[in-house]
Amino acid sequence: MATSMLELFRVLSSFSPTRVDLKAAPWDAYVEWAIAQGLAPLAAYNLEYRLGLCGAPQWAKDRLLSLYQGTANDNVMKLVNFKRAVDDLEGRRIVLLGAASFAESLYPHVAFRPVIDVRLFVPPGDVEPFVAWLRRAEFKADTTDAPAPSGERVLSDGRTMLYVHGALSKERALDDAMLSRCLPIRFYGPSMYRLDLEDALLVHVMLMARAGFDVPMLEFIDLRELVQGAPSMGGDYSRAPRPDVVLARAGQLGVERALWAALGVVEKLFPETGEAVAKLRPSLMLPTREVLERLVVTPLAQVGRTEAFRGEDTLRQLLAGG
């Protein structure tokens, strides 16, 4: 029986894939879609080192493996270059967000998770001093994209894009609380931190929702690992998130609907997360759940989708509050 696109995605996005016959899988459709979704490095590793003679065509292995090697080199270059820029900075609290934090805290190998850019969160009063510090490492204001949202600065050294957030939520007290809970990352120097697990999960969902959920499928793998407590690792995120804490903070941040929808997508894509998702999903009114399921969850969980997600009106209402 032919392997479906969803089945192929699940096998190749697993950190412990089960050996199956993939000879009749839809390789032509999968390979280009996977590359666009940031999934190629992990898929390549699984095909080359985990799945053996699974029936995958050689052309698909070669195409994906070239992305694995390129991602490994690119990630190391970006992260080492960033480390050099911040390693000597002392007495500050700079929080590494998203891909740059997740690549080594959620993924067994840094090459599995492409780091397209580096996102950082600092107290609002530290934005300009930090930007000035980064200029010493030749990071300059980037003017190639549309203007950044209020409170966010965009810089580039020609190789790496840096996004500096001076605020994450709408309330300074909530941001201050997140900063007080963050965890040190000694590798990058004495001023570098990451969000604690519950905050990382919620901020990840919040940023996905602010992007209109028009995000690569890779970000739902990030969320899968956060929800399950990074079971393949042994670091800061390798514990089950506390449901009472997640739900309370989701209400404070006003992301309950976004959280409900994002967790619904994760559960559809990865059924093994069902038990964990059930504990973390907020309670919403039935009409709200039905709208989110139909207009957000179902289309986002469609593996192989190539068109941009279109749900702006629904998402504006979703982000209006929990």
Tell me, what's the shape? globular
Distance between the termini: 44 Å
- Return residue spans where pLDDT drops below 50 for at least 5 consecutive residues: none
Oligomer: single chain
Radius of gyration: 20 Å
Q: For the report, how would you describe the main beta sheet?
A: 7 strands, mixed
Proportion of residues in extended strands? 5-15%
What's the number of extended β-strand segments?
A: 7
Query: Which class best fits the helix and strand makeup?
Result: alpha/beta
Helix proportion range: 40-55%
> Strand order within the widest sheet?
3-4-5-2-1-7-6
Order of helices and strands: HHHHEHEHEEEHEEHHHHHHH
Quote the average pLDDT. Answer: 91
Tally of separate helices: 14
Description:
This protein has 322 residues and is α/β, with parallel strands linked by helices. The chain has a domain at 197-322. It is built from 14 helices and seven strands. Strands 3-4-5-2-1-7-6 form a seven-stranded mixed beta sheet. Strand 4 and strand 5 (161-165) form a beta hairpin. The radius of gyration is 20 Å and the shape is globular. The model has no long low-confidence stretch (mean pLDDT 91).
